[in-house]
Protein 1
Amino acid sequence: MITTAVQLVISGLMLGALYALVAVGLSLIFGIMGVVNLSHGSLLAMAVFVTYSLYLLSGNILAAAILAVLLVSIIGMAIERGGVYPFRAWEMRLLVITFGVGKILEQIIYVVWGPIYITNPIYVPGSLEILGVTMSTYRVVLLVLSIALIIGLWIFIQRSKWGKAIRAIAQDEEAASIFGVSVKRVRTLTFALASALAAIAGILLSSIYMFRSASGWEYLLIALCITIVGGLGDMRGAIVASFMLGVVESCIGYFVSPLWRTTAYFIFIIIVLIIKPSGLSGLWRGRS
Amino acid sequence: MLTENIYVIHILTLANIYAILAMSWDLVSGYTGQVSLGHALFFGGGGYVSAFLAMWYGVPPPICPLISGTLMGVISLVVGVPCLRLSGPYLAIATLAFAEAFRSIVIALPHITRGDEGMPLRALILGAMPNYYASLVLMLILAIVIHLIANYYFRLPFIAVRENEVAARASGIDVTKYRLLSFALSAFFTGIAGSFYAFYRMAITPEELSIDTSFMPLTMAVVGGMGTVTGPVLGAYILVLLTESLRALIYRIRILIYAVLTVAFIMLMPGGTLGALRSLTKRVPLPQAKASESRLTALVGQNKSATSKAHVLASFVACSACLLLLSDLWHI
């Protein structure tokens, strides 16, 4: 009984950490630009498929993954420069553009790779014992790696000059540009960063789950749900919500059925919008 | 000769059904500016409700579309009420999630919905030509109804809500009410279209609930011209005829073409084909100038509305007549 509980919590935390990588990027983009990047999920799927092909070509999974992450962040930058920045004044057009770009990327995957299911062979053999529960080493490595990435991002946002610029723009774009922050460059950097994080998360997820061309939408939906539960545009809320929803998902997957996952996420979105539209971020903002 | 071209008739029937879907999407997204990314829910949902009603409960098929439409209108409030009182991208996110959630429920309950196989229906109208005329009549009736709603009864509040929410609230317009109204009506019309589609195809599958189906009306409205009634119809005809006439060449990349067209149009020509045509003839201002146009309408009175109504009717009749004529000439 306790063994199951611990296993559920640890695998939930692992999922949550990976989802956090996806959701934080989405939240960062929304916080700075007020844009819901609906192509986020397809960027993630693109990274998975590019890694798959590069691995088949080169035989080196690490190099393949790094190249894929670079490529996807370049695509992300191109989306910002070509599709988002020139249209920043029209919220509705931005939604249609990012949705359309997501659809284009998904269909490019479908046309190039076909209707196949793939996984990427990233694996660390062996098993560990935590609290008297046996876990596969690889899942623990994933958990530690994702948490390290999140902490790294947190430090980057809080301490570095770029991070300060990002936070400044999120607070007040005009004031930041008066103080000499190049808004255009910081926006592009944010898009690159968010896409790279999504790409890393996707490549790691593809070692556990099967991916097809339309899988990106599933992860977009999960990330959207996380950002709404956490409060749109709030990074801290997104991280907390990711871990919460990761554990909830692994429990639903165990006790009910993995098929109800999407439904559970939808119910979360609606409940949060009815009770507290500002999400978790409303809790700490309300107090302070 | 026409009756021999059953394939062409089939395509035109589909174009009519998708035109209803696109017009309904445009009613909420083009007219009030709230993007819905989950109209597949109402389209497929309407089909599934009809399938249940007709095949399980023995409800007479002719009233199924109305019941499905009403039910979809009610369901739209489940998403609409929490989302539309907030400003921001909430409706887009929630509709996207709701459609996917409904699709996964349908697939997760194979003993009720037959899962991926979909549900069978008995045809409501027999024969290709009767179905074509029925779809054309339905499309024209709904086009006139939507035209009256969006360009006549609620023209000013809809434009005010879309163009400037704060100003609309300040001038005493209940923004949430009008958004909800347009969303529920849109769901109602989409439900009718979905029901008709299911009876016509004699089946409804989870495919009709997928993101691809949600994406289609968006593409059609954007390509035709958002914020109009004729635009989505034009877009539906252009896209359906384009993909079907080049089916052998581009069937695999049809959704890629849809996506590229959507992005290209919304970036370069936000007024769509209709906007481009209008700016060529210079008779009516571009859709971006809607706010000033509405002031003009208020000054001039109902004059313009009446002429544009006649204009819409005439273009519909001309459009379908031309298409029938063309298909007759092609001998496909």
Protein 2
Amino acid sequence: MRTDFKGAEKIMENISRELFVPVSKEEKQLETIVRPSMSYWQDAWRRLKANKVAMASMWAIIFFIVLAIVGPMVMPYRYDEQLRGQEALAPSLKHLFGTDELGRDLFVRCLYGMRISLSIGIVATIINIVIGVLYGGISGYIGGKVDNIMMRIVDILYSVPLMIYVILLSVSLKPALEKLFDKYSFLSGLQTVGAPLVCIYIALGLTYWISMARIVRGEILSLKQQEYVTAAKTIGASGWRILLRHLIPNSMGSIIVTATLQIPSAIFTESFLSFIGLGVDAPVPSLGSLASDGIDGFISYPYRLFFPSLLLCLIILAFNLFGDGLRDALDPKMRK
Amino acid sequence: MNIHTFFIKLILKEREEVARYILKRLLWSAVSLFVIITVTFFLMRMIPGGPFTGEKTLPEQILKNLNEKYGLNQPVAVQYVKYLKSLLRGDLGISMRNQGRTVNEIIAETFPVSAKIGIIAIIVSLLVGIPLGIWSAVNQGKWQDNLSMVLATIFITIPGFVLAIILMYIFGVKLQLVPIMGLDEPRSYILPVITLAAYPISFIARLIRSSMLESLSQDYIRTARAKGLSNFIVVYKHALKNSLIPVVTYLGPLIAGVLTGSFVVEKIFSIPGMGRFYVDSISNRDYSLVMGTTIFYAAFLIFMNLIVDIIYVFIDPRIKLED
């Protein structure tokens, strides 16, 4: 040590004092290569903002949601109001999308249908998130035998297309729910939403969580190896706390992406159910039921199929494109 | 199936491992089937009132006799065991609304019709989707790529029944090129097949495009190019081979998708297939038929998934048999 020190002194002697000048401010700044620190979400938002398609679809989604909420309130007709003498009109300024054979304004019905369809997408997805995240989270965090059994159950459920379960649940839940609503008056709040709609919420919510559970489990499996989990464990955090406060928030990126992409598939499934006669009950419209109603008189009244289908496609498209953009923004590794 | 890897696996004494894997998959398929049968049975029993309390109320005595005939007056557990036993014999039960017809008869009559359209649709979607994806990947970023990806996005978005009606209107009603109902002549297959294949084509095209792009950026492709191989050989022999693997994984969902698609297509084009019968049985509340067809569909799909999984083992040498 000492000899080293002496050696250094010797070298120092050889360097003239003039070379030791304080660094100027500009020079100091040249050295700094750090950009202002950005959180994961700020970074993702920056990437998302740069993606024009995703931003356009985000605004489209906001527009659709506002339209679905405000539209039916400001229109002069109700969705189930039958205007005498104005049956089966073609689109005009008074009735933008025309009227159906019962004299109901199709524009209002489409707006209201959008409300129902969006609510199905969102409610079903919320149920999916709750079940899927907890199931996948618990399975991934505990690991071992429990994980094995839980994932086997998921595999078993997954071996049959979810649509079959949705159909089965819809067929069997609908009459059961209707009976339940008739029996217990305290459920009358739900009655206004309608048993078929509640049935679709439940049927979709109970089945589509499977892919969410798989994705969350995968995330948790890799995240639980991280140092901060060990750190949390050493200071005595409980398993639940680690799962809910550390692991799940850190896998939020893929949860959000999966959920966003599940909304259009729920809306899609609802339109399919409406088509095969398991959708919402008349007079409540959904975009799917409006489109499938439009099929009957399609040749004489093509606009009755056209408008609801177009809205349905636009909503599904917007959510799909936004979901793709979100995935690119939140998970740059996945980008191709 | 890749015969080459198959033999390598055999030579490397992996035969036992492969056999064990297949056996394990078989076992899990049986468990899956059992679960879906149980779920179906109890969900159907959840429906209040039973299958005979419909729109028109039957006289008490007839109702009692009917319940006795179908064993509905016994405890649920007994009914369940009875149902399992008859399923083991391959008996799916009797349709409650189509008098005197068994579910087996209905399936035997309608399934071949659906299968024919389904197989054609699957072949078409592979034959169109794969080249479209390659075309897109090879011309990445050019107009060809943009065009096919925009088309793929559009066809993924349109619900099947809307597409069916639009096609029917344009080609059947306006241009009168193809018949709009039934399956009487070869030409009448065109519209149902297009409707069924539209979504898979788009999906496969996107799948192939992204896996081709990944393959094309690999080192072995650079090596192949450096060796001076022609572009054609590099793309179609080297890159395509590995890019096809995701398509094999998609085969299971593809079959399932065509199957659920058939519900819509057969109803719209009035095709006497199994999908239409299924949808009709749902709206008629013919619970025994719903149950029988659901179980048949489940068994069919589980079997198909099993086959796809086994094929997959032979195609992709990198797959781990443990999982």
Protein 3
Amino acid sequence: MKLSTLLVSACLTAAPVLAWEGGPSRDDLMKAAPNPAWNGFVLGGHDMTEIDDGLYMFRMAGTRSMILVTGDGVIATDPVNTEHARVMREEIAKITDQPAKYVIYSHEHWDHSVGGQIFKDEGATFISHENCAKHFADLPHPDIVMPDVTFADDYTLELGGRKLDLLYFGPNHGDCMVVMRPDPGDYLFIVDLVTPGGAPLGFMPDYSPHHYVRTLKEIEDIDYTAILGGHGALVAHPSAVTERRQYLEALLAAVKDARESGVTNIREMVRLPQFEYLRGYDDRIEDNVRRIQTYYGIGW
Amino acid sequence: MLRFLVGLTLVTASPAWAQSLDLFTKATTEVAPGVYSYGAFTARSLFVVTSDGVIATDPVSPKNAADMRAAIAEVTDQPVKYVVYSHQHWDHVLGGQIFKDEGATFISHQNCITHFVRHPNDDLVMPDRTVSSDSELTLGDKTLKLMYFGPNHGDCMLVMQVEGTDVLYINDLVTPYSVGLGFMPDYDPGEWLRTLKELEAMDGWTEFVGGHGIPVAPKEALSQRKRYMEALMAEVRAGIATGKRLEDLYDTIELGEEFREMRGYDTHIRRAAERIYHYYTMGW
């Protein structure tokens, strides 16, 4: 694994011209946390970036999808919405004539899973964790294509000599999240579980906090080189996962301590000054604290 | 005498929720023959005295369970044979050990088990039996109906009714005359509204005991909560349709006068709007 890491590091450095959005260089993004370069992403327009051999990231507005081009067709991920999917399909056509054979959902939330019909129309097979199908059925959305194939644990998709591992860690952000790992294993496409350099969304919808921490620890145990982000920085050093895990642990500990010491105005009192540098911290810390109050108060 | 007069003024001049704002003094109120509402504004449970023992519901916490056990003993010498959980949240289900120790059988909807396993708690007694759809629990001369409406507030909520009475036990789906928690933890707003509509359309009941709030409330309080949810969701949906961002909605949301008088409106309305915004944009 060490050898493979070295090879890819070399490949990263020697990578050809990439559309880096006029933002920070890949070298800058691959520095460990805390890394201010992770805040240098853009939100306007859209772009397609070649990350590695056959591996691309498409971004529109603030959301990204991973694309794997193989000799026997294309594997796309989160269609996000109808417009995102349409432009992504156009951008794929500029890279390859291959048809889109598969679409993988990272998880069930509509800001990632809507809009796949254009891929369905060309015959793509849709894949998600089985728990996503329950959410899609429970709360239908007219523009969500239901998955054709579901799975209960990890799943490996093979196409045109490439392999894509879908790693399931149990409940964390919702209960059907997969982290995607294309061969040879140097990159993890991680949606929502970490947005490098940022504080978590205010009230952490649908998160199970202690399973979230557990999942991040399990990701930290994986030997890989770079995060590909669903939001925020295009690529990031794996320490972004550790930074998020440490933020959550500090948040959980601080709220727990405050509850046990009888602090009454916890939302005003609990702060994490050591993480003030995180993007969005000022706007989100109070809601983060409120979310963890609920976790300790009602077990949700 | 002065106290009495002040109290009278409150009753006539304040919204219905303000008529009983004693948050912490627990009391027992018989709401139908043998059916009791027990608790305070902060947490409330139902217990049922039958000819062959007692059916208790949510123990809430070790302290509350001990207090409720004493309150039951003031009404009857019968042992507690069953404890039924309304749903999985810790602010209702903890502290049942005192009933377990006297041999009670614990019952919940089966979906609660997943939550109890995912989020263990030392003060939680695991259910001995589970139900998966509408069920009946008969003990002595009474039958307690356990009604399941699918996901709404969590996905293991049971609404209860002693057969032959016109009183329901509806935990957390409605807190009488209150808007409820702003960001609606664990709620599925669409399914919640559906559940309220189904309860409103259901015959055979006129009053309910809530999991928080006043001892017993008229059915109209449920209808009011339903109207509040409809107004809130319509307002947010209309805002999204006209291109409002979350920040705009958060700052400008305002509902009609009837809803502005509900308990907690000023505290919770902005977060409620945020929650519904996520419902319409993220499917959560």
